[in-house]
Each structure stands twice: as structure tokens, then as C-alpha cells.
Amino acid sequence: MPRASDIVKQIETTAVVAIIRAASSGELVNVVSALRDGGLTCIEVTMTTPNALEVIHQARTSVGDAAFIGVARCWTRDRPRGHPGRAQFVVAPIVDLPTIEMCKRYSVPVLPGA
Fold first, then answer.
1. Number of Cα atoms under 13 Å in the Cβ half of residue 31
2. Which of 23, 34, 39, 47 has a CA-to-CA distance to 79 between 20 and 30 Å?
3. What is the DSSP letter of 80?
């Protein structure tokens, strides 16, 4: 199991996070595998993807330690939609302290936007 610092180092080293947004989750695990086969090691699945958290779980199983699978911020202050435990990192569109606190609670790296 990679440490949070390993994930952050990989993101810093590659400086690229592929973002997958799709209307259907049917082929997303294959897309993640194709991205990894193409050399990308940091891949985010957006929460607009149907069954996003399940896709992340399946993708992590599929690629193993060959890539890190993240999620876009997966909750709102008023309505949690899951926690980042299935994802290896979280991308947020803004600096949002509740998001950062939630990630800290689960020891998941967070990449807040500004």
C-alpha cells in the first residue's frame, strides 16, 4: 500500500493528472488501463461519472500499484456522497477547508485548486 507521500511525489514528478469524465461508467476501467498502458500514472475519475466510487475501486483493482486513482471532491458540506477511502488522492476545484479536513482524516492527499 503506497503512502500518501509516495502519491504526492508521483504527482509532482509526472506533473500530469488525467481526468476522466463520462456519461457512462461501462468502459471506464478499460480507459484507465489504456491510460496506464500509455504511461500515465495519476488518473482522476470525476464524480459526474455514474457509479464513480465503484469505478475507482474496480480501476484500482485492475491497475494495482501501476497507477494512482483519484477522485474529484466527493462530498459537499451538507451531503456526503462517500469518503475518499476508495480513491488514492482527491482533486478539489477550490481551497475548501472541510475537504482538506476530510482528506486529512482519511490520510488521503488532496490537491485543492485556487
1. 17
2. 23
3. B
User: How far is the C-alpha of 76 from the C-alpha of 86, rounded, in Å?
Assistant: 17
Look up the pTM and report it: 0.85
Q: Are strands 89-92 and 68-72 parallel, antiparallel or unpaired?
A: parallel
CA distances from 15 to 9, 76, 87 (A): 10, 27, 19
DSSP string over 28-71: HHHHHHHHHHTT--EEEE-TTSTTHHHHHHHHHHHHGGGSEEEE
Range of the domain at 87: 4-110
Number of domains in the chain: 1
Structure confidence by residue, pLDDT tens digits, 44-68:
998 888 888 888 889 999 898 899 9
> Which of 64, 28, 26 shows the shortest CA–CA distance to 45?
28
How many whole angstroms separate alpha carbon 111 and alpha carbon 59? 20
> What's the confidence (pLDDT) of residue 83?
57
Higher pLDDT, 101 or 39: 39
